[in-house]
Amino acid sequence: MAAVFVSLAAAGPATAVTRVDCFADRVVVFDPAFEDLALGFGASRMPGIVLGPPGDSAPTLGSLSVVSLGRSGSITLEFTDNVIVDGPGPDLIVFENSFFVGAPPAAETDEYHVAADLGRVQVSVDGETYFEFPFSEEALLQADGGSLPSSLLKQLAGLSGVTPTFTGNWIRADDPTAWDPEGVGGVSGSGGDAFDLATVGLSEARFVRIVDSGALTGFSGSAEGTDLDAVIALHSRPTAPIMNDADDDGLDDLAELIYYGSRPDDPDTDGDGISDGEEVAGCTDPSGIISGPFFFPEPDLMASGPGPTVLKWSFLGSAFRYDAARGNVADLGTAGDTVDLGPLTCIEDNSTDVTTLGNEDASVPLPDEAYFYVVRGVRATDPETYGTSSAGFERFGSGGCM
Q1: 316 vs 16, 35, 45, 380, CA distance in Å?
Q2: Residues 140, 119 contacting (CB under 8 angstroms)
Q3: For residues 208 and 210, what is the distance between their CA atoms, to the nearest angstrom?
Q4: Exposure string (b/e) for 136-145, b if CB count within 10 Å is 16 or more?
Q5: In which element (H, E) is residue 113 found?
Q6: How far apart are CA 25 and CA 83, in angstroms?
């Protein structure tokens, strides 16, 4: 019998139940402009580094949870368990790692500069026909140098990488035409550049493509060109197939009980006029308790082979550390209301990375055996279990990562 590899994923609790969030789920095309793919910053952490929320950073220091595209490079992302829909105002935010050069402005009339790598943003329903958000070609031709003045930035609306990105409420879209007195440098939320599908005449979109503008801005070398951090959907609805959905809100009944805190018999738990499914797919709390970003922190796990196995998983946030381990399917069992994973072998322990590249697993199962892999993302206050089964039972293993 040929070797069989089974992948399991966990972070806090985790499950086989279909999950929904506001993040892109798949990198369809990664076409950086570097002659050697490995030369680009963040390339070794692909695809997981762009499949999650934006990373933490200061207003004057860009996020490092990014991948660089190089001059005129591009990346195409797909939303698979949900679709972006046109709602009131902006529908998605593209987070680059632009930042204020020097102190952020203290008043609306203050001049300032931003280290900005500009990108063209395109969206598509089917992945074949793309619609590009309009911007000023004349203003883009003026974009040159390590940083751009605020007078020019205000003319570059419609491009990504214009608005600084920093730690904050990343589901709150910034309006570049309005000064937010409660925001850093007048910028709302976590910054980033927001886009409205109505601008390009679409009612929904599954694919988002960012193409570096080619402007000679920002840094040169391995970090040149657009540095993509994340793309999130503000208005979205679930589309993934599910087994049980009593209230027809697009969420699995068990997932509502265990992960989202919403009612499986009520499509609008908090009564705000937005369905539970749409709220979860926009990373907002369907119960109305949490006002900031809301999502269940479970990474998507990918395993590559044959040969030494490399694990990759999606980014959960800068506060997480990751453990990746291997087990034998023959050792799986149950013990009361828990799942026993059996003896585990730690592959990556307490890592800030989103891949085991450099710690590849060269072990091969014997004939008639099969391995499984599990990864968990843990914050300081999280229990160190390996998630939960599809029935909601906690998974535990012996040995593994500490």
Answers
A1: 18, 30, 13, 14
A2: no
A3: 7
A4: eeebbeebee
A5: strand 113-115
A6: 11
Say how far apart CA 99 and CA 239 lie, in whole Å. Answer: 35
- List the domains of the chain with CATH numbers: 4-16+297-399 (2.60.40), 26-237 (no CATH)
* CA–CA dist 244, 255 (Å, integer): 10
Assigned token pair, 162: 């214009």
Tens digits of per-residue pLDDT, 134-190? 999 999 999 988 899 999 999 999 999 999 999 999 999 999 999 999 999 999 999
Candidates 119, 28, 30, 32; CA nearest to 79 is 28
Residue among 292, 42, 53, 62 nearest 164 (CA) = 62
Q: Are 60 and 104 in contact (CB under 8 A)?
A: yes
Q: What is the CA radius of gyration of the chain?
A: 22
CA distance 130 to 211: 12
Token pair listed for 10: 């966990």
pLDDT in tens, 28-58: 999 999 988 778 999 999 999 999 999 999 9
Cα gap 92→206, rounded to integer Å = 11
First and final C-alpha spacing in the chain: 33
pTM over 0.85: yes
List C-alpha distances in Å: 241 to 7, 81, 252. 20, 8, 9
* Tokens matching residue 149: 């003045």
Q: How far apart are the C-alpha atoms of 319 and 385, rounded to whole Å?
A: 17
How far apart (Å, rounded) are the C-alpha atoms in residues 346 and 338?
Answer: 21
Residue type, 278: E
SS3 assignment for 118-148: CEEEEEECCCCCEEECCCCHHHHHCCEECCE
